[in-house]
Amino acid sequence: MIKGTVIRRLLIANRGEIAVRIIRSCREMGIETVAVYSTADKESLHVRLADQALCIGPPPSSRSYLNGSGLIHAAAHTNCDAIHPGVGFLSENAEFARLVREKGLIFIGPDAEVISLLGDKVRARSTARSFGLTVTPGTEEAIDDPAAAKAAAQKLGFPVIIKAAAGGGGRGMRIVRSADELAENLAIAGAEAEANFADRRVFIERYLENPRHVELQILADGGGKVAILGERDCSVQRNHQKLIEESPSPGVTAAMRERMAQGAVRMFRELKYRGAGTVEFLVEGEDFYFMEVNARLQVEHPVSEFITGTDIVRQQILAAGWGRIELEPGAVQLSGWALECRINALTPGRVTRLEVPGGPGVRFDSFLYTGCTIPPYYDSMAAKLIVHGPDRRGALARMQRALGELVIDGVTTNKAEQQRIIASPQFRSGDFGTSLYSTMIKEAEDAV
Question: Which end of the chain has less neighbouring CB within 10 Å, N or C?
């Protein structure tokens, strides 16, 4: 147990592999964990591993993992000191963070006011500019009038992209290549944004055709100490959903990394940011543009853990409960190269056989076990395969070997697709952007 204990018992307001991940750090810290689960997840691995488990409702997320008041009641009922929101669900919900703290519990994350500011992408762009970060050219305010949208798009120059002001993950996002397509896509994007985020506001940016998607991993103690744990390259995406992440980025130089970090550190220090967060950029050559901040833990955090030797979940908990992190600004050294492949279950069902790869520098984060059932109600990601090597070439060889060892029978996964990407000349060259996946698909179709 950590000296001067503040958090003795923590409720994990999430499920699946991220809940398992949090339990493991808590156990090493001497913190008891309470898992919550829907009836569809009653036999999930996180339920088995936690010190205590509580059913939170039926399968629909709106009645279980998104039921903020129910989660807070569960934490109080089980005498928890804190709530960790994990990723997705309520992890960037400012109102949930506010209610957690109003009930006298510790929220593992930034203050509600900071989450609210950074979660509004229009306000976040303005904030980033004030700290010297260059933003992608776009509208200064949310926009819903077709005529005004047309005028703004013509000024920016086509193609443009419409984005939801209150969310991400590809939802409420539409690429528009001509003025004739604008009004329809504006309405569709607004409807998608409202359905997914209860906020139909959208804004318009110039669309960059094939940039790199790069994000800085940041940890901060809430009192002005800010540490950068290098960057991750998340350019391999399908429909704006990340498939492969790596660190460092093959397209970022040391000088560029330093320029990115300067503005990001100023922003996080001024906001008195607490915990883990990422600043996301689009990169073209030597130019980079601020895109957004994710005020939470990221799915791809293990690659940063591998190259820095840092337990990011531990640092989140220390920042929230003890007001400190075990890192000094500028002292984080990057070592080697790390890659992560997201293993998605393309069909629900029972896993009849699971063989997990091992060996030096291999990590498998998952909620799977032989005999478990993958329910149809939630995100398709079932596992993350992460490897670390001395350099990119070594990490690629290790990932190929690890993917070859991985066996998941009983359900269909995207393992073969990941193997094709890792083996492709485009990916192996390191010279690619966000169009890599679509280019590979088109080449495969043309070859048929």
Answer: C
